[in-house]
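Batch manifest, entry 17 of 40.
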Amino acid sequence: MKLPNPDPDQPDLSYIYSFLQSSLHHQMNNDTAKKRRRKTAADDNPDDGPPGKQGKMKDLKGIITTLSLLEQQEKEDLDRASNDDKSFAEEKQKQTTKTKAMVEYYSDLQGYYSDVEESETVKRKKSRNAATAAVAAAAAGASEKGAKPGGSGSGHHRRLWVKDRSKAWWDECNQPDFPEEEFKKAFRMGKATFDLICDELNTAIAKEDTTLRNAIPVRQRVAVCLWRLATGDPLRLVSKRFGLGISTCHKLVLEVCSAIRTVLMPKYLNWPEDGVLRKLKDEFESNSGIPNVVGSMYTTHIPIIAPKISVAAYFNKRHTERNQKTSYSITVQGVVNPKGVFTDVCIGWPGSMPDDQVLEKSALHQRAGNGLLKGVWIVGGSGYPLLDWVLVPYTQQHLTWTQHAFNEKIGEIQSVSKDAFARLKGRWLCLQKRTEVKLQDLPVVLGACCVLHNICELRNEEIDPELRFELVDDEMVPEVALRSQSSMKARDAIAHNLLHHGLAGTSFL
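Output type: C-alpha cells
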C-alpha cells in the first residue's frame, strides 16, 4: 500500500526508488548483453576488459540502500505521528469526562445548599409567626385581666421589643404646672402657642395605636421637632431627652416640618392681598417717608456640610475668607412687612450665587414679570439691582447730600428685614449650625422655621435677649446695578422730596 506523502514540497522517495530500480534492471540487462559480447571478444582477445565496471555496481547498490533507509525512516515518522494524535485524542477525551463530572458535582452541591437555605427560611418565618402570635395572645390576656374586677387596673405592660428609655424630662414638661418661662426657654414659645400648633397639625400628624405598640402623641411629636429646631442639638441628644430612638426622632422632625409647610404655610406665610398691601404702604411711608413700599428684602446664608455633588456651587467664598475656614451654604431670600413677618421666601439656592441671581430665580421675580407688582416698591440692599419694582440705595462714590439722605431712609427700611432674619436665626439655632439634615430635605426644614417665626411674631412671642444673633452677610454690588431708566428717575425724585420736605438728612445737621 502506497503511503501518502506528508510533505508535498518533498519528492516521493518510493517513486524515485521504483524509477531507479527499473533503470538498474534495464542497465543490468544491457550490461548482460554487453558482457556476452565482451566475453566473446575476450575469448578472442583475453587481455582487453571494460574498465570501472565493479565501481559502478557498488555506487548503484549504495544509492538503493540509502533510498531504502530513507523510506523506512519516513514510515517510522508517520507511525509516530499517528500514535501521538491518538494519545492526544485520548487525553482530551479524559479531560472532557473529568470536567463534566466536576460540573455535575458542583451542580448537585449548589442544589443541596439551596434546599438547606430554603428550609432555614421557612423555619425563621414559622418562628416569627409563632412569636407574633404569642405576643398577641399575651397582650389580649393582659387586656382581659385589666378589665376584670380586682385586676391590675390599667393593664399597662412593657412591649417586648421596645427599648426601655426614660421619658422623665418630657413628662415633666408636659405637666400643666410646668413653669411658663421654662417651657418658653425650651421651645421658644409659650404653652398657648404650642397648643395652637398642636391643634392645627393634629389631623396631619396624628397616628393610631396598633397591637404591637402605642402611637407617639401629637404633643410629643411637635415637641421633638421644636426642640430640635430650637437647640440644633444632634439627634443623639434629642433621642435621650425624649426617650425615643434616634431614627424615630429624625423621622418625626421631617414629618412635622413637612406638615407645617403643607398645613400652616398657606395660612401664615403668603403674599398679602390688595387691601393688606394698602395698609403696608401707609405703615412703611409713615416710618420712612418713602411712598408705595410694601416690603423689605434680605438674603442670608445657612451653613451646610459639604455636599457630595456640585461642591463648587455651594462653596461660600466670602464666608471662607472672613472665617478662615472652608464654608458651604445655601441661601434664604425673604421679604417682610413692617412687623418683621415674612410675606415671601425663596429657599435652597447654592451659596455661591450672588443676591441678584437668587432674586432672578425666585417666584417673586416671576410675580413681578407677570405685572403683579406694578406700582409698588420692595426695598433691598446694595446686593440687588435697581428694577421697576426693587428700590436700592445709591452705590457710587462721592454721593450728594440728597443721595446720602435717601440712603439713610433706605437703610431704615432694610434694617426691618435684617432684624427679622436675626431673630429667625436667634430663635432657631439649627440655622446657625451645619445640621445632619440631607441637602434635599433642608428647604422643608427652613420653610418650617420661617412659618414658626411668623406664628411667634404674630402672637408677640418675645425672644430671649440672650438669643440675640448678630447677622453678618456680605453684599456684593451686581455687575449691572442699574437696569431701569424709569426707576433711576423715580429714585432721584423720591430722594429730592425726602430732603426738601424735611423727611431726611437730619443726621448731617
